[in-house]
Each structure stands twice: as C-alpha cells, then as structure tokens.
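User: Show me a protein chain along with its predicted structure.
Assistant: Here is one chain, sequence first, then structure tokens.
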Amino acid sequence: MSDSHKAALAEGREQGRAVRRYLEALEAHKPKRGRKRTSESVEKRLAVIIEKLPEADALTRLHLVQERMNLEEELAASDNTVDTQGLEDEFVAAAAPYGARKGITYAAWRQLGVDPAVLRRAGVRRGSES
C-alpha cells in the first residue's frame, strides 16, 4: 500500500469521525418538547422531594427516590458542556468531501438536523450530493 493511499485512508477515517461526533452531539442536544427546565427549577423540585420523603408511604417514597435520582442525574449532565463549536468546525471541514465520497445529499444532512447555515459553511449545496 502506497503512502498516498495510507494518507487517503487516514483522511477518510478522520472525516468520518468528525461527522459522527457532530451528528451525535446534535442528537444528544436535540431540543426536547415542552418547557425547558433550568437548574433552579430542578433544584426546587429536589427540595420538594426531600421535604416529602419522610412522611410519604412506601410506594410514593419509591417514586420520589427514583425522581430524585433522575433529577440529580439531569443536574450532573447539565454541568457537562460539550464544545459544540469545535465539533461544528470539524464537521464543516469534513462534511463536503465525506458527503461527496459517500453520496450523501443535502436533504439527508437536513433530515438528521444539520442546520442549513452549517451546511452552507461546509460547502454543501441543495440539489446535489455534497
């Protein structure tokens, strides 16, 4: 295998990783239905749960404990920020060549939630494969 072939394979793998990381970040941070919860509202609910626990019956206590665990997990996850701008920049550099090589259309990128402005920055245009 020639050095240029190895370099092309490495470049393809890196482009695939950049695309995968960006799409996974989009999926993980997809807006949820309903009103967005703030850290303060979660903490208020946790305080209410802690207050209700001592006098709750066994079944209600079970549900409250589970809700408390879910809310604590939600708070911990909100502290883990992802460098979405960095992932987006890597995606912009990789999307057009990756899409052209794999036959990915503008419509396919859009259906996965990639913003039109990001696709424009990447050089991916409507009506053609990347």
